[in-house]
Amino acid sequence: MDTGGNSLPSGPDGVKRKVSYFYDPEVGNYYYGQGHPMKPHRIRMTHALLAHYGLLQHMQVLKPFPARDRDLCRFHADDYVAFLRGITPETQQDHLKQLRRFNVGEDSPVFDGLYSFCQTSAGGSIGGAVKLNHCLCDIAINWAGGLHHAKRSEASGFCYVNDIVLAILELLKQHQRVLYVDIDIHHGDGVEEAFYTTDRITFPGTGDIRDIGYEKGKYYSLNVPLDDGIDDESYQFVFKPIIGKVMEVFRPGAVVLQCGADSLSGDRLGCFNLSIKGHAECVRYMRSFNVPLLLLGGGGYTIRNVARCWCFETAVAVGVEVDDKMPHHEYYEYFGPEYTLYVAPSNMENKNSRQVLDEIRIKLLVYLSKLEHAPSVQFQEIFADSETDEDQDDAGERWDLDCDMEVDECKPLSSRVNREIVEPEPEDQDDQKGIAEHPRAFNAAAEETECSKASDGVSMPIDESSVKVDQENSEHFISLFRCTPSQ
Ligand SMILES: [Zn+2]
């Protein structure tokens, strides 16, 4: 694997991409609470690196429109959205029943500005999708997005609003097929659940290899279970051939890549051993297909490495070489003692044997060939009739180029009190014992259940509520997203 810098080869891949980058200067002020591993501050740190590496001038920098209730309700239940809008740390004690019902309070706590945070996160991802739909950029980036665990009526794993599902729904207005790729260490279960019966594909680090979708969505969901300590070479050994084949067979009109950085070596919650360059190789590879690309954030709990990773991945997106030596900036002290952009992976054991990876690779390539040869699947190009889509007209107005505010790059970053400065990232693991984005115990249980369910070859796990969502939104995505049988 090429590990030298991020320069792109000559030829089609060397062509510059037009990149729209969504960033709200307020985002770093949201605070999940003392000791909570999810720190929106990492997005502000990423932005500071982008500014000081001179990368902002290579992109259109946009402040996202806050997503409105009606935008969120395209996927989420009305009562859940109303709850998120109304709940505050002061009033939460009066709503214990709702907190339980919506799974808010522990891993996903109520904090000041929770709803605005959700609006910003979703607004950036939907805004990016709109920009791509209108061909106003080749790549859109929202590091505040990628919150892949959120369910229709439930918070999960630090995620409240599923910006990814909302962005995919937006892309489906314009594109018949959208590919979702997820390189977070955790399973993108919220996204998978939302689209389980449609033909989309996910590529998470966890999840069961037997989760391959259901009914019309069969073979459209791929999961690659990987074990602890996977390194760059092993990861790409599986990633590239599978994704290459997926691109060939599925021919998506747009790709959403969730770049969760908890798959990096040394993550506070994760247990993979990817280097930043290895992680970014996924971005580089997806970019090389020249298909409209939405890059989103996600997990990532050793925040200095998250900022490094997303800075480097932004550089890959714009096609600019960046120096390993980090420029001085307001968060410079986080990056000692190396003060470099890249970090070396550790010497932890890679529990993924080449033989097992090879079996996984072969199994998934077989799934894909079934998809390719399925008689019901024909990849006809059917274009959305955007003139009749009220939402789309509305979105076009609302999310138009003129409506987004350009962030003034000359203005200093938010000068508010930075709570993260007084609470530097703890190196000890003590305060995370009771908290995990997606506990491994849960994964194991899920796998066990699916194991028994999968034995009949048909009854894959389906949440009734997600099926209902599919039907409710059928105008918007089932007919567009599904590889349309001849009709
Ligand atoms: Zn994660």
From TrEMBL:
It is found in: Nucleus. Residues 419-473 are annotated as: Disordered. Residues 431-440 have a biased composition (Basic and acidic residues). Its main location: nucleus. Substrate binds at residues 107, 157, 301. It comes from the Eukaryota. Gene3D superfamilies: Histone deacetylase domain (3.40.800.20). One of its GO terms (molecular function) is metal ion binding. This is Histone deacetylase. It is an enzyme of class 3 (hydrolase). Residues 36-315 form the Histone deacetylase domain. The active site is at residue 149. Its EC number is 3.5.1.98. Pfam families: Hist_deacetyl. Its cofactor is Zn(2+). Keywords: Chromatin regulator, Hydrolase, Metal-binding, Nucleus, Repressor, Transcription, Transcription regulation. One of its GO terms (biological process) is epigenetic regulation of gene expression. Belongs to the histone deacetylase family. HD Type 1 subfamily. A divalent metal cation binds at residues 184, 186, 262. It catalyses: N(6)-acetyl-L-lysyl-[histone] + H2O = L-lysyl-[histone] + acetate. GO terms for cellular component: histone deacetylase complex. InterPro entries: HDAC_I/II (IPR003084), HDACs (IPR000286), His_deacetylse_dom (IPR023801), His_deacetylse_dom_sf (IPR037138), Ureohydrolase_dom_sf (IPR023696).
